[in-house]
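Figure 6 in text form: structure in, sequence out.
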């Protein structure tokens, strides 16, 4: 194969050879050596120019000439694009949310100032590093390592132990990712203030309410027959207030908890107790049945699970007219096991279903109050289930009835009487 230096000498050698041949031909044609050399030199120059033109056209076929006007326009447009890019970059750079551009392997390509603050990234050394490794042993690192499928909510910012962030990973461009981390510290603080306020108010109300309720119980209606109806109403209302305070305190406790005790909760006796409570509340007005075929116990907090599961039955009794039926089921599903309570009661219009677990949300305030509800029952159920990694499903048809189901995963199930998971 010829080397570049060999190729460099090929052209001058060919030109020189051409000139020698031209001189020879001129000498053979009558001693006109110079004329022969000149003619060949002219032909070689024409040939070279043709080649240069051909090569130039090949390189710039569509743009043989650019007029000064076109050149100016082109330059103006380039400057505008460059300035827009600079603006975009500086806007992204000064966003209050952390923005990190990642390649397909989660290596950092670019990040803004907030990412330095919230995620602790440093310039220039963190460009090109693998983000999940750079984040060390933080929750964020684990989340990235597991594929970051769902947004990550309320975690400590790796670069700032006093800040809380929500993190999302979005697809960006061709096989790139954009990591967005939003500082939610102010919301977390407000939420904490709200929780503390509710817990403190409930706690402060508990003692005076107990005293009032105690004195009301001491008064015998027969001693003051003219006040008997008033006394009855005062007792019922103070009892209701007491129940609201207790439910608020339960909710405050559940909200601050991030896990539950892992105790065996035997389901056969628990279902029997729930049924007894329901019958006491129903006073024979409903037909109550149990179908327990799961053959599994639960793993979690006995007190909280009892409270949540019996709450659904108490709702079914309170929102089902006399003569209706209530069925409590505990059965296996492919995902684990489901505890459900079906009734043939009033039912709930579909528009209310999504909001039922909000505090004090009621479909009908008067019906809830008349039936002795606090408006906090389903909120407590939701929190208890969350702490057991379970979820609440509600199906309802107005005038037909409702089914409230608690879906537990395999990890929360135990074989009755044994210690291993089902
Ligand atoms: P409450 O103490 O008012 O019953 P909950 O949080 O337990 O509060 O329930 C919220 C609302 O959901 C109730 O006010 C009621 O309107 C509706 N609800 C709950 N369970 C049922 C049910 N089984 N049938 C019809 N409506 C129900």
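Output sequence:
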């Amino acid at each position: 194969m010829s080397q570049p230096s060999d190729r460099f000498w090929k052209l001058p050698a060919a030109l020189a050879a051409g000139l020698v041949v031209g001189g020879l031909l001129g000498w053979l044609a009558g001693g006109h050596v110079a004329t022969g050399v000149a003619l060949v030199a002219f032909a070689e120059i024409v040939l070279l120019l043709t080649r240069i033109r051909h090569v130039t056209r090949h390189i710039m076929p569509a743009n043989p000439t650019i007029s000064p006007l076109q050149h100016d326009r082109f330059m103006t447009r380039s400057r505008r694009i460059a300035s827009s890019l600079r603006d975009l970059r500086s806007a992204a750079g000064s966003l209050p949310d952390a923005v990190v551009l990642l390649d397909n392997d989660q290596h950092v390509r670019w990040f803004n100032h907030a990412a330095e603050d919230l995620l602790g990234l440093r310039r220039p050394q963190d460009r090109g590093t693998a983000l999940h490794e750079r984040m060390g042993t933080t929750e964020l690192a684990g989340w990235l390592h597991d594929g970051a499928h769902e947004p990550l909510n309320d975690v400590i910012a790796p670069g700032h132990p006093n800040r809380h962030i929500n993190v999302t990973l979005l697809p960006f461009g061709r096989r790139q990712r954009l990591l967005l981390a939003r500082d939610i510290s102010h919301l977390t603080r407000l939420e904490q203030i709200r929780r503390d306020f509710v817990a403190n108010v409930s706690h402060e109300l508990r003692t005076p309410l107990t005293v009032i309720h105690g004195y009301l119980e001491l008064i015998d209606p027969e001693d003051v027959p003219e006040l008997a109806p008033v006394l009855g109403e005062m007792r019922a209302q103070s009892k209701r207030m007491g129940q609201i305070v207790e439910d608020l305190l339960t909710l405050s406790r559940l909200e601050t908890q991030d896990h539950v005790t892992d105790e065996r909760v035997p389901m056969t006796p628990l279902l029997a107790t729930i049924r007894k409570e329901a019958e006491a509340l129903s006073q024979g007005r409903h037909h109550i049945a149990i179908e327990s075929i799961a053959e599994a116990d639960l793993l979690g907090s006995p007190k909280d699970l009892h409270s949540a599961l019996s709450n659904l039955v108490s709702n079914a009794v309170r929102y089902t007219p006399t003569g209706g039926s209530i069925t409590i089921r505990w059965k296996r599903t492919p995902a684990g096991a489901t505890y459900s309570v079906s009734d043939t009661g009033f039912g709930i219009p579909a528009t209310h279903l999504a909001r039922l677990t909000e505090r004090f949300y009621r479909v009908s305030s008067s019906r809830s109050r008349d039936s002795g509800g606090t408006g906090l029952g389903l909120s407590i159920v939701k929190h208890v289930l969350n702490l057991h990694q379970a979820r609440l499903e509600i199906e309802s048809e107005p005038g037909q009835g409702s089914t409230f189901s608690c879906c537990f995963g395999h990890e929360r199930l135990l074989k009755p009487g044994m210690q291993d998971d089902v």
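Caption detail: The longest helix spans residues 185-218.
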